[in-house]
Amino acid sequence: MEINLVSDTVTKPTQDMLRAMFRAEVGDDVYKQDPTVIELESRVAEMFGMEAGLFFPSGTMANQTAIKLHTQPGEQLIADKYAHVYNYEGGGASFNSGVSCCLIDGNRGMITAEQVAASINDPEFYHSPLTSLVCVENTTNKGGGACYDFEEFRKIRKVCNANNLKFHLDGARIWNALIATNDNPTEYGKVFDTISVCLSKGLGAPIGSVLLSDKATIHRALRIRKILGGGMRQVGYLAAAGIYAMENNFNKLPEDHRRAKELGAVLEKLNWVAKVEPVETNILIFSIQSNINEAVLMSKLKQKGISISAMGHGKLRIVTHLDYREVMHTYVLETLEKMIL
Ligand SMILES: *Cc1c(COP(=O)(O)O)cnc(C)c1O
After folding, report:
1. In this structure, are residues 3 and 332 in contact, taking their beta carbons and an 8 Å threshold?
2. What does the record list as GO biological process (predicted)?
3. CATH code for the domain of 264
4. Domain of 142, in residue numbers
């Protein structure tokens, strides 16, 4: 049994999803003539209380487009030090938009309105970059799947309004946050200028993200997506996977969360584990005792058919997902419990 817990992006389309893809009605989406893409874009927009959506091949391109929409070269965005837009998008913020990042030392990838307020450069002080954008993640990736208290978003929005800043949500795992917090998704549309959501993480589609905003902003985003090479033709086949994923897989996320919590509970009892970070959703980060060799642990797990990822400094990461089934879960729990290091 091969069990891949490295990421929730490793899932493969099921027969039913593939059938939905093959049945899709398509057209040339560069001319906005693909009805399936239009349906996906409007469904996601409606769900999050936004006017319009735009389909992207990746979350990275959707985030990079948002940064480009909200900034001018030389300006600065504010984000947590763990932010995907800063750490994992190949330096795109500086490459595509010519902006620098002011990084906040937040809590598990989450920042507060107070921290944002303290990080804004005085716009009259022309020696410093002009602060123009705040980016947050929900759930946080490197922060271990942590979820914001929605009230903090409202507070950050106020700070943005008072300082003429735009507010972007990297919602690659927003679905997991909605399940964990019971937040009403339409509230998100009231607080953020733009939101990116991924269909290829917890929802299990093979590809795709959607950027959400008001109509005028999405119209501008169309040009940026074109510049970045993200204009695609009969892409309704892929959008159909996204629609299928929203309809059928969103409701399965609680299982991923339960399994991650159960794995965390088992790890906490093991003597070679130093610390298990709180498990809120489908990401579990834990650290091992300093006398334990990370590479040895990883290879022992690998021999048992289990892959997880190392984050460096003795920290390891497990991510549960749609293709991690109950039989596998039982086996992983048993294997961990019996593991001697
Ligand atoms: C996965 C992820 C993205 C987008 O990644 P792509 O691989 O480009 O789709 C963006 N932000 C966060 C927090 C992510 O975890």
Report:
1. yes
2. glycine biosynthetic process; L-threonine catabolic process
3. 3.90.1150.10
4. 15-249
CA proximity to 8, closest of 293, 251, 256: 256
**Per-residue pLDDT reduced to its tens digit, 183-214:** 999 999 999 999 999 999 999 999 999 999 99
CA of 60 to the centre of ligand 1 (A): 6
- Picking from 217, 249, 281, the residue at the C-terminal end of a domain is 249
**Alpha-carbon distance 9 to 278, whole Å?**
22
Predicted pLDDT at 257: 98
Backbone angles phi, psi at 4, to 5 degrees: -105, 105
Please check whether residues 162 and 288 belong to one and the same domain.
no
CA distance 307 to 305: 7
**How many A from CA of 173 to the centre of ligand 1?**
8
- In this structure, the answer to whether residues 157 and 82 fall within a common structural domain is yes
pLDDT in tens, 228-278: 999 999 999 999 999 999 999 999 999 999 999 999 999 999 999 999 999
Check residue 139 and give its pLDDT: 98
- Number of structural domains the chain divides into: 2
Q: Is the pLDDT of residue 290 over 90?
A: yes
Return the number of other C-beta atoms located less than 10 Å from residue 34's C-beta.
26
- Closest Cα to atom 14, ligand 1: which residue? 172
Nearest ligand 1 atom to the CA of 137 is 13
Same structural domain, 174 and 257: no
Q: Are residues 97 and 239 in the same domain?
A: yes
Q: Which of 84, 85, 142, 319 to mutate to test the pocket of ligand 1 (most atoms within 8 A of CB)?
A: 84
| CATH code of the domain containing 210 | 3.40.640.10
